[in-house]
Amino acid sequence: MKREKALKPAANATSSRGDTEPRRRSDRGAETRAQLIAAALEIFGRLGYEGATTRQIAKAADANLAAIVYHFGSKEALHLAVAEHVAKSILARIGPTLASISTPEATATPEAARAALHSLVGTMVDVLLGSADAERWARFIVREQLQPNAAFDVIYGFMENAMSTALHIATVILDTPEDDEIRLRTLTVLGQVLVFRVAQTLVLRRMKWTAIGDTERAMIKQVILQNLDAILEGTKP
Amino acid sequence: MKREKALKPAANATSSRGDTEPRRRSDRGAETRAQLIAAALEIFGRLGYEGATTRQIAKAADANLAAIVYHFGSKEALHLAVAEHVAKSILARIGPTLASISTPEATATPEAARAALHSLVGTMVDVLLGSADAERWARFIVREQLQPNAAFDVIYGFMENAMSTALHIATVILDTPEDDEIRLRTLTVLGQVLVFRVAQTLVLRRMKWTAIGDTERAMIKQVILQNLDAILEGTKP
DNA sequence: GTCTATAGTCGGATAGAC
DNA sequence: GTCTATCCGACTATAGAC
After folding, report:
1. CB of A123 within 7 Å of some strand D atom
2. Which has more pLDDT, B200 or A7?
3. Would you state the pLDDT for residue B22?
4. What mean pLDDT comes out for the span A223-228?
5. Are B173 and B232 in contact (CB under 8 A)?
6. Superfamily of domain A83-234 in the CATH hierarchy
7. CB B149, CB B78: distance < 8 Å
8. Can you give the residue ranges of every domain in chain B?
9. What pLDDT is recorded for position A161?
10. What is the three-class DSSP state of B75?
């Protein structure tokens, strides 16, 4: 928000390069772009948009400072490219699960629906807590929430999708229409997963853990799924 | 992380001013300090430590740039002073509730314990969602989680307190020893509250709300307390 | 496509008048 | 205690050699 002078360049935003010329022999360019995005994801997530500097990012990506402008057009465009990358990556992870529980069969009976919901929540826990990648994604996303940017809109898309699916399944299980109450309840389930990412510093201290590994993740998943069942059971009409 | 040169000054950190001279007639100094802290809370919360600039803060506080160094010693010291202010403010709000449920009577019977837990969670919802101040506190705290600083330690203290109390009450209700499982479950309850602060952009969009006012807060509280009861009921040994 | 060098701007901190 | 003026390091973005 500080240097809003020459925002003229950009031109070639994020993807769709090589549209003027056929794909050439070397993919050095693509590699550099990928490295820049990976480094930017990490650094934007930790320091925020303003706190991150293009020098840091270039250095972490083992690329040249000018490469950022060359490949993305500006610091801001790089930020947006990272958001797109995150959205795509997460969708790639939960997409299969989402698809498998979006079939009519998955919600044919309350039992099947319950299994589908377990599957979705379990996948969310795994995706959010199960990889170093996810750690970076989550940090980046939470930053966007704190300071909603254009990048947030990019990310919102897939969240919308997952939440809608979960909501629909929940209405089947509880046999109720979709109303504010069940919408809120769906959000509280999301919160139970998110807290382990967002308040992780607090979580680690309280649990006297040093990290959330496989064992810890399994415990967390078990507790959340038990809660989910209890909530489904306890709030039946 | 950028300008680690002259970190020499500081000297007079945050409070305890006027120890060299008796409190004088005017409290202009105290007022300026308060305004600076208020402005810094808002701006650090929104932009993060690195993203915030002392010029912005001074301007928002209607104070002079040099006043920051004069009163706090440095940008970093101001940041820490804000953390202390936040911790104190929150404790002032939940302290009474915390005290009232820390008595032996409050956990004498499972019924009383359940009421105490409701009281604590309800207060948390009110504090976190019920005031414009809380919005700022939450933003600031979440930032600290993403990028733990010295300031985080300041804030952790009161969280520890509230969590321990909640945990103890839960063990009474469930009549189980304190173990990892119940610790995790306590954190999932915290998550249900936090999500409405942390992912508020998402919440507002999904609920098609424009803000979380009294009505919305009441709905949220009801849903979370119902969940809490369901969880307590559904996970009994 | 990648690099170095640099232009132009903005940052935190300081000095010293009042 | 508060202010203006200023230093100087670090920032983003650019130009142009390779």
Report:
1. no
2. B200
3. 41
4. 98
5. yes
6. Tetracycline Repressor, domain 2 (1.10.357.10)
7. no
8. 84-234
9. 85
10. helix
Residue A55 tokens read as 């020098």
What is the mean predicted confidence (pLDDT) over B56-84?
A: 96
CA atoms within 13 A on the CB side of B185: 31
Give the mean model confidence (pLDDT) for residues A118-122.
Answer: 96
Amino acid at the residue A65? L
Residue B217 exposed, middle or buried by CB count within 10 Å (0-12, 13-18, 19+): middle
**C-alpha distances in angstroms, A220 versus A127, A128, A130, B169?**
13, 12, 11, 21
B51 in contact with nucleic chain D (CB within 7 A): no
B142-to-A215, B147, B194 alpha-carbon distances in Å = 26, 9, 10
How does residue B26 score in pLDDT terms, banded at 50, 70 and 90?
low
Beta-strand ranges (E) seen in A114-203 are none
CA distance B122 to chain A (A): 15
User: What's the CA gap between B166 and A190, in Å, rounded?
Assistant: 21
Q: Write down the pLDDT at residue A135.
A: 86
Instruction: Check if B203 contacts A (Cβ < 8 Å).
Output: yes
Residue in A121, A173, A231 to test binding to B, most B beta-carbons within 10 Å:
A231
User: What fold characterizes domain B84-234?
Assistant: Tetracycline Repressor; domain 2 (1.10.357)
- pLDDT for B148 equals 80
Give pTM, 2 decimals: 0.87
Contacts of A47 in chain B (CB under 8 A): 1, 48, 50, 147
Per-residue model confidence as pLDDT tens digits over B149-201: 888 888 888 788 889 999 999 999 999 999 999 999 999 999 999 999 888 88
Q: Report which of residues A11 and B144 the model is more confident about.
A: B144
